[in-house]
Design a protein that fits this description.
By secondary structure, the protein is an alpha+beta fold. The protein contains nine helices and five strands, in the order H-H-H-H-H-E-H-H-E-E-H-E-H-E. It is globular. The two termini are 40 Å apart.
Length: 252
């Protein structure tokens, strides 16, 4: 549940005591007896007014809570969003990856992580300036965004690196997904020709061990990406992993 709704609900519940408190203050000014039984009898004597005040107070508190919650949502979103590409940043991605690993283990579904590195970004920066490099990163991010499925998550990990989570995706399916992204980026009409090297690590859905290290999964995908670089760039390399300390041999 988003903070805006939980804040609104909490504020609405907390507001229930406000009318009784106001009634208690009014009674204290009139007389000394402000016992719970006396307070209850006063409420019963004028139930309509109490319900009206209580309802109005609940609405006001709920609206106030919703506004505060929406502001908290916006701050949380900004703290997890990369300013340049508007994708998630490393912090947001790490949080999402932990959640997706828990989900994959619970339902025994496979999970693939893709690690992308933009080939030759330093050359673009050196020849055309850092603004050109930023434009290239935005173009890559836009292509990635158009290829995502509803359940996928993409982030700018940092510098010229991007990461993706592909839930319920086997290794071979992840390779096809990565190849499609690689081809779209290579074919994309932009001012500077751009390609990417992609590494893939897959968590087998049949693996039910308690400890699956998100960092190990990312490390495996990163290692596969560097192997793609070693093989000449603009290529995809995958590894089958099970969240263990060491990955299996590179497969493609």
């Amino acid at each position: 549940m988003q903070r805006r709704f939980s804040y609104a609900l909490t504020a609405g519940v907390l507001s229930s005591g406000a009318p009784a408190g106001l009634l208690g203050i009014r009674l204290a000014r009139r007389e000394d007896d402000i016992s719970l039984r006396h307070l209850s009898s006063e409420i019963a004597a004028d139930r309509t007014a109490y319900m009206y005040i209580g309802g109005a107070t609940a609405i006001i508190f709920a609206v106030f809570g919703y506004v505060l919650g929406r502001h908290a949502d916006q701050l949380a979103e900004l703290s997890e969003t990369d300013v340049l590409t508007q994708l998630l940043n490393a912090r947001g991605f790490s949080s999402r990856l932990r959640a997706e690993i828990r989900r994959a283990k619970r339902y025994r579904e496979p999970l693939s992580v893709l690690f992308l590195d933009v080939d030759g970004l330093k050359a673009i920066n050196d020849r055309h300036g850092h603004r050109a490099g930023s434009d290239a990163l935005r173009e890559v991010a836009n292509v990635i965004r158009t290829e995502l499925r509803a359940t996928d998550t993409a982030a700018r990990w940092g510098g010229d690196e991007f990461t993706l989570i592909a839930p319920n995706t086997l290794r071979d399916e992840a390779v096809l997904f990565a190849e499609r992204i690689r081809e779209r980026i290579a074919e994309h009409q932009c001012q500077w020709p751009t390609t990417v090297s992609i590494g893939i690590a897959t968590l087998d859905g049949a693996d039910t061990r308690a400890n699956v290290d998100p960092h190990a999964l990312l490390r495996d995908a990163d290692a596969a990406m560097y192997e793609a670089k070693r093989r000449g760039k603009n290529t995809v390399v995958a590894v089958q992993t099970y969240g263990a300390a060491e990955a299996a041999p590179l497969l493609s």
